[in-house]
Design brief:
The complex is a heterodimer. Chain A is an all-alpha fold. Helix content of chain A is about 75%, strand content about 0%. In chain A, helix 5 packs antiparallel against helix 11 and helix 12 crosses helix 13. Chain A starts with 7 loop residues before the first helix and ends with a helix. The radius of gyration of chain B is 21 Å and the shape is globular. Classes of the chains: A mainly alpha, B mainly alpha.
Chain lengths: ~450, ~325
C-alpha cells in the first residue's frame, strides 16, 4: 500500500513545478498576485453578499478551508489516510468553548481573537498523544487506527457529560467584550475573524509545505524506505506532520465554537471526519489549492442542497463516486490538466464541445433528479396522494405521466450526453495532437 | 446472577456469530483483493431489506436463498463496472470508492423503503421457544442463527483450504500473474469473490434483520465494528475473524450486563473517591457504560502491539 498510496505522485510533481514556475515568473505581482487576489476576495465577499444566509455560508466556508487544508497535510502531503480527523476539530472546539465560558472582562480576559489558538493548542496536545500511537504505521494500518481512535473518542463523549455536555453539547456566548477589534455580536464581525484566521492558517500551511519537514513528508509518502535511508525517521516525520495538522484542525474547531456558540459530539463524529475527507478528495489532494476548492464547493453544496432537497446526501455520494472513478486527482487536477492547453492558447477549441456536454448533462440530470425526488417523496411522505412540488410545478406521484416524462428526459439526455462525451474526447485528442506537433 | 451470566454468554455468542457471518465476507474480499470494503455492512443491510421485500410475497425460506443471490449479483456488477475501473488508481482510491458506495446505498435504501424501520420479523415457522433454562426462554430463531453461522464457517473453511477453487483464490492473491499464466481469468475470479463476499454479508442480513431492527441506519451502526473484527482477528484470516467475532460479541454483551463502577468497587474494599468533579464522574462510570468503546479500545491496542492481529500473517 505504501508504494502506491495515491495518484498524487504525478499531479503533486506537476503542482510543485507549477509553484516553482510562479516563483520564477518575475515581479511582485507574479509572486504574490494570487494571495493579494485572495485577500481582496476575503474582504469584499461579505460586502457583496449581504444576506444572513450568505454571510454564515461564507463563515462556514472559511472554517472548512482551514479544516480541509489541515486534512490535506495528512492525506495529500503525508500519505496518511485518516478516518478520524474530526477528533481534533471537535476536541479543539470543546477546548475553545470551555475557555470561552471561562472568559470574563474582570477575571480571565483573553481577547476573543485568540480563542482559536486555545482550540489549536488543545487539539495539538491530543494530536501528540494520538499521533504517537498511530504514526508508528502507515498505510491501511494507520487508516484503521484512525478509525478506531475516532470511534473511541466519539463513544467517549457520552461518558463524560460534564466535559462534552451529552446530547445537547456545550454552549457559550461569544459577546465577551474582550475583543480587540469588534464585539462579535453580528455575523459580519465573526466572518472577519474567520477570514483573518483562514488567511493566516493558509499561509502558514503553505509555508510548511516548503520547509524540510514538508518535503520529507512527501518523501515518506512516496518512498518510506528511501527516506529512512537518507537518514530521516519516517515515524518522526509523520508524527510531527500529524501533530501540526491537528493544531490547524483545532483552530478550525475553535472558530466553530465562536461561529455557532455551541459544540456538540457531532463535531467529533465519523460523519464530520467523512465530510472533510470528501472535501479534500473532491478538491484534489495533489495540489495545495485543491482542498480550498473542495471546501468551497462542498460547503456550498452541503448548505444549499440540504435546504433544497432532503436527499442531498445521495447527490453527494454520486458526485464523490464519479470523482473517484473518473477524476481521482480532483477539481484541482482537472484544472491542472487544462493548463498546457491554456498556455498553447487552444482552450477555445474545447469550449463548444464542453458547452454541449454540459447542456446534455443538465438535460439528463433534470430527468434523473425528477425520478429520484419523486421516488423519495413516495417512500418518505405519509400520504403520497398529496401532490409534491417539483421544479415549481405541482406533480402527483401517483399519476403515470410524470414518471414517463422523467424517464424519457433521462434516457434522451443520457443518449445525447454519450454523444457529447465522444465529441469532447475527439476534440481533446485533436488539441493534444496539435500541441505535440507544435512542440516537435 | 448465574442466569445473567449464562444468557449473556449465549447472547454474546449469538452476536459474535452474526459478526462472524458479516466479517467472513469482508475477510474473504480483503484477503483476495486487498480491498477494505467500507460498504460491506451496506450489503448486509441490502440483504435484510431484500429479504423483507421477498418474504412479504413468498415467505422467509425463499428469501433466505434468493436475497443473498440477488445481492451477490449486485456486488459482482459493482466490482465489474466500478471497483475494477478504480483499481488502477491504487488501494486508497478503491477504499474511497467503497466509502462513497456506503453513502449511496444508504440513501437508495431510504429512497425505496423510507426512513422508518420496516416490519421484518422472525418467521412464523421459527417463532417458538427452543428451551427454557433457569426460568428464561431461549427462542428457536436464535438457535437457527447459531446453526447457520456454524455451517457457514465450516463450508467456507473447507472451500478455501480443501478445494481447487480455494486454491486458485489463494494463489490469485499472492501470485496473480502466475495464476493468469496457468489459464485462469483472474479478473473474473476477483469478481466472483467480491460477489461471494457480498452474498455472505447479505445472508447475515437476511437472518440478522429480524433480531436487529431493519432500518437505513443499520449499516452505519454495524460498519465500524466489523472492521474491528477483521483487524483484530488478523486481516485475511478466517479463523482469526471467527475467534475475534466471538470474543468481541461475548465481551460486549457481558459488559452491558455489568453495572460495576470504579467508585463502587473501591468503596466495597473501603476506599472512597470524591463524588464530585472529574474524578467523581470517572468513579461513577459503570462497566456497562464503557461497552460501546470496548471494541475500539481493543482494536487500537491490538494495532499498537500486534498490527498483524490475532491470527494474521501480514501487516497490511
Amino acid at each position: 500500500m505504501s508504494d502506491r498510496t495515491l495518484p498524487t505522485g504525478k499531479t503533486s510533481a506537476a503542482a510543485l513545478r507549477g509553484g516553482a514556475r510562479s516563483d520564477r515568473g518575475g515581479g511582485f505581482l507574479g509572486r504574490y498576485g494570487l494571495w493579494i487576489f485572495a485577500i481582496i476576495v476575503l474582504i469584499v465577499a461579505p460586502q457583496i453578499m449581504t444576506t444572513g444566509f450568505s454571510r454564515s455560508l461564507l463563515s462556514q466556508i472559511g472554517i472548512s478551508i482551514i479544516f480541509a487544508l489541515s486534512y490535506n497535510m495528512l492525506l495529500g502531503q503525508g500519505g496518511m489516510l485518516s478516518f478520524g480527523h474530526a477528533v481534533f476539530y471537535g476536541l479543539g472546539g470543546f477546548v475553545a468553548i470551555h475557555v470561552l465560558n471561562a472568559i470574563s472582562p474582570e477575571g480571565f480576559a483573553l481577547p476573543l481573537e485568540l480563542l482559536p489558538l486555545a482550540g489549536g493548542f488543545g487539539a495539538m496536545i491530543f494530536g501528540a498523544i494520538f499521533g504517537w500511537i498511530s504514526t508508528a504505521r502507515a498505510g491501511t494500518t494507520f487508516a484503521m487506527i484512525s478509525l478506531g481512535i475516532g470511534e473511541l473518542v466519539y463513544a467517549g463523549t457520552s461518558m463524560f457529560p460534564e466535559l462534552f455536555g451529552g446530547e445537547s453539547g456545550i454552549s457559550g456566548n461569544r459577546v465577551t467584550h474582550t475583543g480587540l477589534f469588534f464585539n462579535y455580536g453580528p455575523q459580519i464581525d465573526v466572518y472577519y475573524l474567520i477570514a483573518g484566521w483562514c488567511l493566516i492558517c493558509t499561509i502558514a500551511m503553505y509555508l510548511l509545505t516548503r520547509t524540510p519537514l514538508g518535503r520529507m513528508a512527501n518523501a515518506v509518502r512516496d518512498n518510506e524506505e528511501r527516506a529512512r535511508f537518507v537518514g530521516y525517521d519516517p515515524r518522526m516525520v509523520r508524527f510531527v506532520q500529524y501533530t501540526l495538522a491537528s493544531f490547524f484542525a483545532g483552530v478550525a474547531g475553535g472558530l466553530t465554537a465562536v461561529n455557532y456558540e455551541i459544540v456538540t459530539a457531532e463535531n467529533v463524529s465519523a460523519v464530520t471526519s467523512g465530510s472533510v475527507l470528501l472535501m479534500t478528495f473532491i478538491g484534489g489532494v495533489g495540489n495545495f489549492a485543491g482542498p480550498i476548492l473542495g471546501a468551497i464547493l462542498v460547503t456550498i453544496l452541503q448548505l444549499s442542497l440540504s435546504s433544497i432537497t432532503e436527499t442531498w446526501q445521495l447527490y453527494f455520494g454520486v458526485l464523490f463516486i464519479v470523482m473517484v472513478m473518473f477524476a481521482p486527482m480532483g477539481l484541482a487536477g482537472i484544472i491542472a490538466l487544462h493548463e498546457p492547453i491554456w498556455q498553447a492558447r487552444r482552450l477555445n477549441r474545447l469550449i463548444v464541445p464542453y458547452a454541449i456536454g454540459l447542456a446534455t448533462f443538465l438535460l439528463m440530470g433534470l430527468g434523473l433528479v425528477a425520478l429520484i425526488e419523486m421516488n423519495y417523496y413516495m417512500s418518505t411522505t405519509y400520504d403520497a396522494s398529496i401532490p409534491m412540488e417539483l421544479y415549481g410545478q405541482e406533480v402527483s406521484v401517483q399519476a403515470v405521466m410524470p414518471w414517463l416524462l422523467a424517464i424519457a428526459v433521462t434516457v434522451v439526455g443520457g443518449f445525447l450526453f454519450r454523444l457529447a462525451i465522444r465529441r469532447i474526447r475527439h476534440s481533446w485528442d485533436g488539441v493534444i495532437h496539435d500541441i505535440k506537433q507544435e512542440a516537435a | 446472577m448465574l442466569e445473567i451470566v449464562v444468557f449473556s454468554l449465549l447472547n454474546g455468542l449469538l452476536f459474535g456469530m452474526l459478526l462472524f457471518m458479516l466479517s467472513s465476507g469482508l475477510t474473504l474480499i480483503f484477503s483476495m483483493m486487498g480491498v477494505l470494503n467500507f460498504a460491506h455492512a451496506s450489503f448486509f443491510m441490502l440483504g435484510a431489506y431484500f429479504a423483507y421485500q421477498i418474504s412479504t410475497v413468498t415467505g422467509f425460506w425463499v428469501a433466505l436463498i434468493v436475497a443473498p443471490l440477488l445481492v451477490g449479483g449486485i456486488g459482482m456488477l459493482i466490482e465489474r463496472y466500478g471497483l475494477r475501473r478504480v483499481h488502477k488508481f491504487g488501494h486508497v482510491a478503491e477504499l474511497l470508492f467503497t466509502f462513497g458506495l456506503a453513502f449511496l446505498i444508504e440513501e437508495v435504501v431510504v429512497m425505496i423503503w423510507g426512513r422508518i424501520p420496516v416490519d421484518y420479523g422472525v418467521p412464523a415457522d421459527l417463532n417458538y421457544t427452543f428451551f427454557t433454562l433457569l426460568g428464561t426462554n431461549f427462542p428457536a430463531y436464535r438457535a437457527f442463527i447459531l446453526l447457520i453461522a456454524v455451517l457457514m464457517f465450516v463450508a467456507l473453511f473447507l472451500t478455501i483450504t480443501r478445494t481447487r477453487i480455494g486454491m486458485i483464490i489463494q494463489a490469485a492473491l499472492t501470485h496473480p500473474d502466475m495464476v493468469a499464466a496457468l489459464g485462469h481469468n483472474v479478473p473474473r475470479v476477483f469478481m466472483m469473490v467480491f460477489g461471494g463476499g457480498t452474498a455472505l454479508a447479505a445472508l447475515a442480513g437476511v437472518i440478522g434483520g429480524p433480531i436487529l431492527v431493519t432500518e437505513p441506519g443499520m449499516a452505519f451502526l454495524l460498519g465500524p465494528i466489523i472492521f474491528v473484527v477483521v483487524v483484530f482477528g488478523g486481516m485475511g484470516s478466517l479463523g482469526g475473524a471467527f475467534v475475534a467475532s466471538i470474543l468481541i460479541g461475548v465481551i460486549q454483551t457481558l459488559a452491558v450486563a455489568l453495572d460495576w463502577s470504579l467508585g463502587g468497587t473501591l468503596g466495597a474494599i473501603g476506599i472512597y473517591l470524591p463524588t464530585d468533579g472529574f474524578i467523581g464522574t470517572l468513579a461513577r462510570i459503570s462497566v456497562s457504560q464503557t461497552a460501546p468503546i470496548l471494541p475500539y479500545l481493543m482494536l487500537v491496542l491490538m494495532l499498537i502491539f500486534r498490527p498483524k492481529g490475532l491470527m494474521g500473517t501480514r501487516e497490511s
